From TrEMBL:
Gene Ontology cellular component annotations, sorted alphabetically: centrosome; chromosome; nucleus
Any one Pfam family match given in the protein's UniProt record, by short name: Neil1-DNA_bind
Function of the protein: Involved in base excision repair of DNA damaged by oxidation or by mutagenic agents. Acts as a DNA glycosylase that recognizes and removes damaged bases. Has a preference for oxidized pyrimidines, such as thymine glycol, formamidopyrimidine (Fapy) and 5-hydroxyuracil. Has marginal activity towards 8-oxoguanine. Has AP (apurinic/apyrimidinic) lyase activity and introduces nicks in the DNA strand. Cleaves the DNA backbone by beta-delta elimination to generate a single-strand break at the site of the removed base with both 3'- and 5'-phosphates.
Protein name: Endonuclease 8-like 1
Primary location recorded for the protein, binned into one broad class: nucleus
GO biological process, one term: base-excision repair
Alphabetical list of InterPro entries matching this protein: Endonuclease-VIII_DNA-bd (IPR015371), FPG_cat (IPR012319), FPG_N (IPR035937), Ribosomal_uS13-like_H2TH (IPR010979)
Localization terms from the record: Chromosome; Cytoplasm, Cytoskeleton, Microtubule organizing center, Centrosome; Nucleus
Residue span(s) of domain Formamidopyrimidine-DNA glycosylase catalytic: 2-123
Organism, as annotated: Lepisosteus oculatus
């Protein structure tokens, strides 16, 4: 699933490929998408993008003196949430991606198209949309507001949950996802299933305003902005990191190395895989949290770990070694999964024993039929009756019939 760094790089990708490009016509939606139509059509407009946490906002701006149809010449904002598999692509029109569900066409010839591609269709867009009010400040580019928002709301019931589940709550950790939470907790050696409030209540509301990147109008500034270099910022935070520090700096590290497979034009993600220390790394443990999401960790999971939680099946990942060969790294079978299997097997054995005892006490099982020779076969009902009649007729003497005496001439017989 795309997380904060991937959505920020998506906005950078749009700004890079759409810079100076003029788009034209109506915004086109695929027939299969259940997202709303975008009521925008213009003879000439430009596209720019900005991100905040797990959202990206595209702004369609009509070019002056070119006129607009249906938009009155006013810009339109479209807010995207990527779901499980969303991303942007910029291709020729005759190379339109298969799952391109929203399309913006250029005015130039040969024509090109910017597409929002979403294979699993969990992503969404909102015409004339704004940042979701339920989402907190961005962990990457609104750090001081993010830190204050967390520490001033520790009485919220959201912090009664394990820290690994609280980190996915976008109301407080906007931009953190599954792989980021694993890497952050691993670096601090915090068990994932410890109450979040216990981990956070000892943190001080330190003022890092002098380290924050200044936000641009309507969104968040890029870490490459001239106010302060990203490398200096990360170095300062590393000197005395706490959980909230790492929620800020770890995503920035991902942006520096190129992200978790966002760029559709990039095929080699060996740098990102080498950067991972915990998530899907051989030798690490994993459990499904109370929401069914897989949590990767090392050591003790903590007192709030789900009982009889199932570990995901072992997967192989090819990783390049120093000599260039691919070594298949198999995730070891986890101890909780073994316990679950043993419990299921013992239950099966108990059920089998119960059935055997019940058969011994109840009706005896039928004796298997034996094949009889042709001479000893039991006769059918018809055959038995025929045999009985034949034997009875053979043993009984044939009755003597009294023949009527011939009538004497001159006398009447019985028929007269």
């Amino acid at each position: 699933m795309p997380e904060g760094p991937e959505l920020h790089m998506a906005s950078q990708f749009v700004n890079r490929v759409c810079g100076g490009v003029v788009f034209s016509g109506a915004v086109e939606k695929s027939e299969v998408s259940k997202n709303p139509e975008v009521p925008f059509a213009c003879t000439a407009y430009r596209i720019s993008a900005v991100s905040r946490g797990k959202e990206v906002r595209l702004t369609l701006t009509p070019i002056k003196d070119e006129g607009a149809e249906g938009g009155g010449g006013k810009p339109m904002d479209i807010v995207f949430r990527f779901g499980m598999s969303g991303f942007f692509r910029y291709t020729a029109q005759d190379e339109l991606p298969k799952h391109a569900h929203l399309r913006f066409y250029t005015k130039e010839k040969p024509g090109k198209v910017l597409s929002f591609v979403d294979i699993r269709r969990f992503g969404s867009w909102e015409p004339n949309g704004t940042w979701q009010a339920e989402r907190g400040p961005c962990v990457m580019f609104e750090y001081q507001s993010f830190r204050d928002n967390v520490l001033s709301n520790l009485s919220d019931r959201a912090f009664d949950k394990p820290i690994c589940e609280a980190l996915l709550n976008q109301k407080y950790f906007n931009g953190i996802g599954n792989y980021l939470r694993a890497e952050i907790l691993y670096r601090l050696k915090i068990p994932p299933f410890v109450k979040a409030r216990t981990v956070l209540e000892g943190l001080l509301p330190r003022d890092y305003a002098e380290l924050d990147v200044k936000p641009v109008k309507g969104g968040c500034a890029s870490p490459q902005s001239p106010e302060i270099s990203l490398s200096k910022k990360v170095k300062l935070k590393r000197e005395s990191p706490d959980l909230l520090n790492l929620c800020h700096t770890v995503p920035l590290e991902v942006i520096q190395i190129g992200g978790k497979g966002y760029d559709p034009e990039k095929a080699d993600y060996s740098d990102f895989e080498a950067w991972l220390q915990c998530y899907y790394v051989s030798g690490m443990k994993s459990l499904r949290d109370h929401n069914g999401r897989t949590m990767w960790f090392q050591g003790d999971p903590g007192p709030m770990a789900p009982k009889a939680s199932k570990s995901p099946k072992a997967k192989k990942r090819a990783k390049k070694t120093g000599d260039g060969e691919n070594d298949a790294q198999v995730v070891q079978e986890k101890e909780p999964a073994k316990k679950v299997k043993e419990e299921k097997e013992s239950k099966r054995k108990q059920r089998r024993k119960g059935k055997e005892v019940q058969s011994d006490r109840g009706t005896p099982s039928p004796v298997p039929k034996r094949k009889m020779s042709q001479s000893r076969k039991t006769p059918t009902a018809g055959q038995a009756g025929e045999k009985f009649q034949r034997s009875e007729s053979e043993s009984r003497p044939e009755p003597v019939l009294n023949k009527p005496a011939k009538p004497v001439q001159g006398t009447r017989g019985p028929s007269d």
